[in-house]
């Protein structure tokens, strides 16, 4: 399936994005000194610790003992990283020390020390953290609630948040859209065992008073969400549910059914393009789908040689996505062409068989380079995104697992 209209739109977007990224640097260099900083945040698979590493020299800047294994999520601004410990009912927050401020023709970068903030969030099985604008939404699977957390208050050492009722404990998600919140809906009509959570059956929209707006949209086994431009997408068994901002009646929800000729599978993990409006999702274990919500045929299927271990978009090079498969190969997907254009072996094979949270590599993208945790060898491998050559390794004690990269360049006064 070829999406010619999609290709033209994406190519135009890449051209615009390239100009947009280049211009601020030109003006900034004329009047200000440019500085750059990148930091890696790495959680151990087994030990309750999060490490902060200077990406430039590989030195450990800080080590924070937490309560248990932590999944890491960077905020939209990059000023904070949430360390979610689902098995211990707690979330710690780390100040990254990376602070950008936009000045129109350039952006300033302030670099300070990292710090474990004095604020923690506690509740029954916190799981999904969704960063959005100046806040993050923390969903408690067994708590029947989601908290919308103000990041500015966090950085001042205060916990300011608004709580959303999720009707019943379930493994779900909540996403803000203007003054509305999009919340997953559990099946409240079936009985579950004490240790089980009910399945998700749809998505509802609630207003600032917590009242539902319109009808629930069906989305069986809702899992995975992403934002691209002004759109939010959710993975469902029927297809991908896309939500657009609306007028007085609230957001508009549209299901994009999977094509009839697709193999039987569905999407449960989604990534959203930043410089271009598109989504990239899994389609089962060994395929991906490119999604253009505005196209007549919104889906394009990408075949992988083996099962996917992790995948990430490149925020600075909007054409590229990187996929690590269980054979240890790193693949470069050109999202404009819809093709795998390069690959290289970066680790030993890591089978997808076994527990979903067994120690396997994870990817992060920083400064034109791909950082890959290799828990079997206590390393973070650094691969040049253009040449796919491993340029160095960073030794990390234990089993480095979850990883996020925060940083960039800006004017320094």
TrEMBL record:
Protein's UniProt keywords contain Transport: no
SUPFAM superfamilies, alphabetized: YVTN repeat-like/Quinoprotein amine dehydrogenase
Signal peptide span: 1-28
Source organism, top-level taxon: Bacteria
Keyword Signal carried by entry: yes
InterPro entries noted in UniProt: AztD-like, Host-pathogen_enzymatic-act, Quino_amine_DH_bsu
Keywords, sorted A to Z: Signal
Designated name of the protein: Zinc metallochaperone AztD
Organism: Neorhizobium phenanthreniclasticum
Name of the encoding gene: aztD
């Amino acid at each position: 399936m070829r999406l010619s209209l999609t290709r033209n739109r994406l190519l135009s977007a890449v051209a615009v994005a390239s100009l947009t990224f280049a211009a601020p640097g030109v003006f900034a260099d004329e009047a200000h000194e440019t500085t750059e900083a990148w930091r890696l945040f790495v959680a151990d698979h087994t030990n309750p610790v999060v490490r902060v590493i200077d990406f430039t020299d590989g030195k450990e800047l800080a080590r924070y003992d937490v309560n248990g294994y932590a999944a890491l999520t960077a905020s939209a601004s990059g000023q904070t990283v949430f360390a979610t410990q689902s098995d211990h009912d707690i979330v710690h927050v780390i100040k990254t020390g990376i602070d950008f401020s936009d000045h129109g023709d350039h952006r300033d970068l302030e670099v300070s020390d990292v710090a474990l903030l004095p604020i923690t969030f506690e509740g029954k099985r916190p799981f999904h953290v969704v960063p959005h604008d100046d806040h993050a939404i923390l969903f408690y699977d067994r708590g029947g609630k989601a908290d919308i957390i103000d990041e500015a208050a966090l950085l001042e050492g205060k916990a300011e948040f608004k709580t959303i009722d999720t009707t019943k404990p379930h493994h779900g998600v909540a996403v803000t859209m203007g003054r509305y919140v999009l919340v997953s809906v559990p099946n409240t009509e079936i009985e579950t065992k004490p240790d089980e959570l009910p399945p998700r059956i749809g998505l509802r929209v609630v207003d600032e008073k917590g009242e539902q707006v319109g009808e629930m949209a069906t989305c069986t086994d809702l899992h995975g969400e992403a934002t691209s431009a002004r759109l939010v997408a959710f993975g469902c068994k029927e297809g991908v549910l896309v939500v657009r901002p609306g007028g007085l009646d609230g957001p508009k929800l549209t299901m994009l059914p999977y094509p009839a000729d697709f193999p039987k599978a569905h999407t449960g993990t989604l990534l959203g393009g930043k410089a271009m409006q598109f989504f990239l999702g899994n389609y089962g274990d060994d395929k991906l789908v490119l999604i253009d919500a505005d196209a007549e045929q919104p889906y394009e299927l990408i075949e992988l040689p083996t099962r996917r271990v992790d995948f990430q978009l490149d925020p600075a090079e909007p054409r590229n996505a990187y996929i690590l498969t269980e054979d240890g190969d790193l693949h470069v997907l050109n999202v404009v062409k819809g093709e795998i254009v390069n690959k290289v072996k970066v680790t030993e094979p890591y089978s997808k068989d076994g527990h979903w949270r067994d120690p396997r590599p994870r990817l992060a993208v920083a400064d034109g380079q791909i950082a890959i945790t290799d828990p079997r060898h206590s390393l973070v491998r650094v691969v040049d995104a253009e040449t796919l050559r491993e340029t160095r390794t960073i030794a990390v004690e234990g089993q480095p697992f979850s990883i996020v990269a925060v940083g960039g360049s800006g004017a320094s006064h």
